């Protein structure tokens, strides 16, 4: 019998399998943040939540469209990172 680890999406708190979750690591170098250790925080996030935040989850076949999707995801991450931190109960201190 194989052991199945259950992982939880940090945003919606639903149980997911490990392969479903994307991991975002936020480093706190040079920034003072509440409740964040020196190694930063790790956010496990499921595809549904990624979609809800505006990420492209289903990558297109076409190479050019893939590049577009990658650029869009990068911009979305920069745009939404504060949202994630608020969802995690971690926010920047003044
Ligand atoms: Zn989720």
Task: Summarize the entry for a quick read.
With 94 residues, the chain is α+β, with helices and mostly antiparallel strands. Helices cover 33% and strands 15% of the residues.
Small molecules (ligands, ions, cofactors) in the structure:
zinc ion
Report the total helices.
Answer: 2
> How far apart, in Å, are the first and last alpha carbons?
50 Å
Mean pLDDT: 83
Radius of gyration: 15 Å
What's the domain count?
Answer: 1
Low-pLDDT stretches are: none
Structural class: alpha+beta
What does this structure look like?
There is one protein chain. This protein has 94 residues and is of the alpha+beta class. It has one domain (7-87). 33% of the residues lie in helices and 15% in strands. The protein starts with 6 loop residues before the first strand and ends in a 7-residue tail after the last helix. The model has no long low-confidence stretch (mean pLDDT 83). The site of zinc ion has 8 residues, from helix 1.
What's the arrangement of secondary structure elements?
Elements lengths: L6 E2 L6 E2 L5 E5 L14 E5 L1 H6 L10 H25 L7
Antiparallel strand pairs: 1-2, 3-4
Bound molecules: zinc ion.
């Amino acid at each position: 019998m194989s052991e199945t680890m259950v992982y939880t999406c940090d945003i919606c708190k639903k149980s997911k399998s490990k392969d479903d979750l994307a991991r975002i690591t936020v480093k706190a170098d040079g920034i003072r943040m509440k409740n964040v250790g020196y190694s930063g925080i790790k956010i496990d996030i499921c595809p549904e939540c990624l979609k809800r935040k505006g990420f492209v989850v289903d990558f297109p076949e076409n190479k050019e469209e893939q590049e577009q999707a990658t650029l869009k995801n990068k911009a979305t991450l920069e745009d939404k990172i504060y949202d994630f931190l608020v969802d995690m109960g971690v926010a920047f201190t003044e």
